[in-house]
Amino acid sequence: MQPKRKSFLGTIFRGLFFGQREVMSMMEEEQIQSPTRTIARNFFARKLTKIGLAFFTLMLLIVIILPFFFPLDEAFFDTTMGNRRPSFNMMRFPRALDNGNAAYISAGSGFGVGVTQAGNVHVWGQTGLTGLDQIPAPMGRVIQVSAGMDHALALNAHGQVFTWGNPNFNLPNIPPDIQGRTIYVAAGVQYSAALTDDGIVHVWGNDGVMRANINPRLQAGRPARHIVANITTVMLLLEDNTIMHLSPRQPAIGEFPDWIQGQIVDIALTDGTGAALLMDGTVVAWGDITAESIHVPDHIQGRVVEIDGGRWHFTAILDDGSLYSWGNNFFGQLNVPTISNAAYIFPGFHHNYVIDTNGNIRTWGLNGFLMGSDELGRDVFVRFLSAGRISMTVGVIAVIIAAFIGITLGGISGYFGGKIDMFLMRFSEIWGSIPFLPLAILLSHIIGRNLGQIGRLIVIMVVLGILTWPALFRLVRGQLLQARENEYVIAARALGVTELRIIFKHIFPNIISVISVWLALNLAGSMLTESTLSFIGFGVSEPTPSWGNMLTGANNTIVLRQFWWRWIFPAIALTTVTLSINIIGDGLREAIDPRAQER
Amino acid sequence: MGKYILRRLCYVVVVLFIISIFMFAIFQLMPGDPVLHYMGQGHQDLTPTQWQQLYEDTVRRMGFDRPVHIQYTRWLQGMLTGNFGYSMVHRRPVLDVIRTPIFWSVVLNLASMFLIFIVTVPLGIISAIKRGKTVDNGILTFTLVGFSIPSFTVALIVIVIFAVFLGWFPITGMHSPFLPEGQWAQFVDRLQYMAMPLITLTFVGMAAFTRYVRAAMCDALSEDYIRTARSKGLKEKVVVYSHAFRNALIPLITILTGWFMGMFGGSVVIEQLFGWSGMGLTMLQGIMQMDYAIVRAVSLFYAFVAVIAILLMDLAYGLADPRVKVSK
Predict the structure, then answer these.
(1) Distance from B58 to chain A by nearest Cα, in Å?
(2) Separation in Å, CA of A139 to nearest CA in chain B
(3) Which of B31, B156, B302 sits opposite A446 (nearest CB)?
(4) A142-147 and A243-245: which strand pairing?
(5) Do A524 and B30 touch (CB under 8 A)?
(6) Is the pLDDT of residue B309 over 80?
(7) In the prediction, which pLDDT does B327 show?
(8) Chain A nearest C-alpha distance from B6 (Å)
(9) Which residues contact B76 (CB under 8 A, 6 or more apart)?
(10) Across residues B47-68, what is the average pLDDT?
(11) What one-character DSSP code corresponds to residue A544?
(12) Residue A264: enclosing H or E segment and its boundaries?
């Protein structure tokens, strides 16, 4: 009986999803199956190869598709967000604050501090690293809190200031003369500021930052009623509705237009820009002209009631109780909820909190990183995806280059034979005898040193390609020489088929399977070599990520143990992907070589 | 046989000659002005004329004004007479600088090769005897994993286990800053520092070598003399260990020789990671510090070792297996 013919692709899909069901006698198999189909059948008969192929396909799709949804900005980094562990708890405030209980909230970098109406302080988010969860007690009835990068300040009803968190940089040493008469506190990055009842600002913390950036003497005794702090500087709103900048080193923020002086009711700072809310409800922004936050949208002009800022964005309450944010939308800082009863806003770093008139808290902005962040505050997940794309691209192109050289030279050598064959054989022997890794390091250093990122990538692909071809060359040549003696070739030659046609039409389809095994195994090898080169700094170089260079610098106890998320994800991905490619290659080889099956 | 060896030797000399030209060309392309490098630091207070004078003197002293082929011959001459150049960073002859790293690289690689051999031979034999069984499949899967894990990931895992959690071994370095008294104590100290690179190198090499052993044993076990031995009624143990393994050992040793040479290149990353100052680390430091005399010497050493490995393998095949007609 002649069984129904099945398409090759159908066989593959059936094999993939349903496994091999029919069992045929050997004779039937011999009669109806082409060699290719036999290979496909053998290949999918093994469970391990199916898993390997499925996993590899999955990873390939992930690294090809997901980077479009999570694009990587190579230039972006933010050290204030460094080494955050994988979680989504940065804005998960405790229930004790909800339902009208919250009196004041402050957003720090990756954590938040809040005060209840009763004056109790709560901390949430990523607090463990610098002891932010160790709130000092008793503090009495706290009325205001401020969160910085890794420390926090609290102010109680008696004007006393408390601090906790990062114990370095002189931060715990609150000036004694401000205790009992402080009216407002502001925490920056490695420094703290407090405003006392006489309108004088006091700053303490990292001497380097303060001496360079903040000079409280500039105030010259003029009383202030509000202070705002960003990562490097402090700005004052004085009693006479003018603003004052306490930083001789941050000129851009100091260059506010003179005409606004005297009409200012509220001020806010981002990293590079300042904004002032005037009496008529308009907002004026100045500072770094490359920052998005300098462009105040026209439609909110005249309607703004309150304004505050994070690192790269401003948030404002409008006169109808709705909210508006503008600036850079790196972490969804601008995705404001649509409400019409906002009462207080508390933006900070990349987070936003708003308390509405019913006392409910709404949040938007950065809630956390899926795979944590690295030492420069870059999202490991986003880098992981792009790194996978780059690692795989480099591997594939390197293999293509090697395959091109190897097949061409192998073909020439096997086809012409004689002196050319002899020369090419010797050449490949010499070329292959040079130690691989040292030469790759040397070449990528010499050629890639003065090139840009793209140029370096190309150099690595080419170096990997031109160093791995000798094995394929010998394989192709050997197969070709072997195949030339086969009956079908002799028959074809007897029929008068041209040599070139014999090679491409008759011999090549027969050796393509052997070549494909080599291609698969070499893809794994190329990816490993690329990652190794990148790891020691001679491959894909920062800021372009690759799975190899994401592991650079992981060989110390602190990173290995405390910041495990920085190395474990790329390491696992690299291993599993190369493993799945090796499984595919191995399965292919066993499917092709009947002798291997016997073993 | 003698004729064959002679021919192979001639071939090796030619290959080395070609490689030396290649290396020389690579280093001609190296970034940076070598003259400035040889002038050294600390000439800021010279007047432009004095500086120019010094520059030209250096050019003449180092022979940079000669044509390229003369430079090459001089360099080759130096190499042949044991003059590998002068390291400007270390202010010593290159040979003095690289002598100790070569020793430590050899120690590390020899030790790991020894470990690999005693671990993988039983594995490979078991795998070959139980061909197709669960044990065999398990070992094969393990080797597949071994192939796929990058060496630096193995190193990181080894660090996590032995240094972070167990706290047995120091992560980087060659020996304690203050060497303990006594030969034995120093030896133990050295061993502690060598432990983790050794474990890593051994693990990385195990996968490939297990497969070699398995393949060699499979081949040996399918030979006719094994059938004869079995039909004589010999015990299976005697058949496997006395008949099959002895014959499998021949290709294994030849592979091992060549493979040992190849390992030098592979240990670059591990040396760098563990701060084991062997050849690889010396070369990387040379590249970083633009100390090209050292890089050139180390690269040539690598190439030399590799070519000698090929020669040794060829000869060993010929000696061990009379079926390989080497005299042809």
Answers:
(1) 24
(2) 39
(3) B31
(4) unpaired
(5) no
(6) no
(7) 42
(8) 17
(9) B20, B24
(10) 77
(11) S
(12) strand A264-269
Instruction: Decide if B265 and A437 are in contact by the 8 Å CB cutoff.
Output: yes
**Range among A119-133, A138-152, A387-401, B53-67 with highest mean pLDDT value:** A387-401
> Where residue B8 falls among pLDDT bands split at 50, 70, 90?
confident
Whose CA is closest to A514, among A551, A480, A537? A480
Residue A401 pLDDT greater than 90, yes or no: yes
**B180 pLDDT higher than 50:** yes
Distance (Å, whole) CA A96 – CA A107: 17
Could you give the ipTM of this predicted complex? 0.82
Q: Nearest to residue A220, comparing CAs of A236, A209, A241?
A: A236
Q: What is the pLDDT of residue A404?
A: 92
CA angle A55, A59, A60 (to 5 degrees): 115
Q: Which residues of B touch A554 (CB under 8 A)?
A: 156
Closest partner residue to B306 among A433, A554, A599, by Cβ? A433
* Higher pLDDT, residue A413 or A15: A413
Chain B CB contacts of A571 under 8 Å are 150, 153, 156
> CA–CA distance from B244 to each of A266, B238, B323 (Å)?
89, 9, 17
CB A384 within 8 A of CB A571: no
Distance from the B50 Cα atom to the nearest Cα atom in chain A, whole angstroms: 31
Peptide bond into A543 cis (omega under 30): yes
Q: With an 8 Å Cβ cutoff, are A532 and B269 in contact? A: yes
| pLDDT confidence tier of residue A597, bands split at 50, 70 and 90 | very low
pLDDT interval class at B146 (50, 70, 90)? confident
- CB proximity under 8 Å: A 530-589 to B: 531-532, 535-536, 548, 551, 554-557, 560-561, 567, 571, 574-576, 578-579, 581-583, 586
Quick one: which H or E segment has residue B296?
Answer: helix B292-320
* pTM for the whole structure: 0.81
**Which helix (H) or strand (E) covers residue A351, if one does?**
strand A351-356
Instruction: Kindly provide the residue ranges of all beta strands, DSSP E only, lying in A108-248, ordered along the sequence.
Output: 111-116, 121-125, 142-147, 151-156, 161-165, 182-187, 191-196, 201-205, 224-229, 234-238, 243-245
Residue in A closest to B28 by C-alpha: A446
Edge-first strand listing for the sheet containing A283-287:
A264-269, A273-278, A283-287
Please give the residue of chain A at the shortest CA–CA distance from B300.
A434
Q: Which residues of B touch A437 (CB under 8 A)?
A: 265-266, 268-269
Q: Taking CB atoms and an 8 Å cut-off, how many pairs form between chains A and B?
A: 124
Give the residue from A171, A168, A170, A140 showing the smallest Cα distance to A156: A140
Q: Region B60-84: what's the mean pLDDT?
A: 78
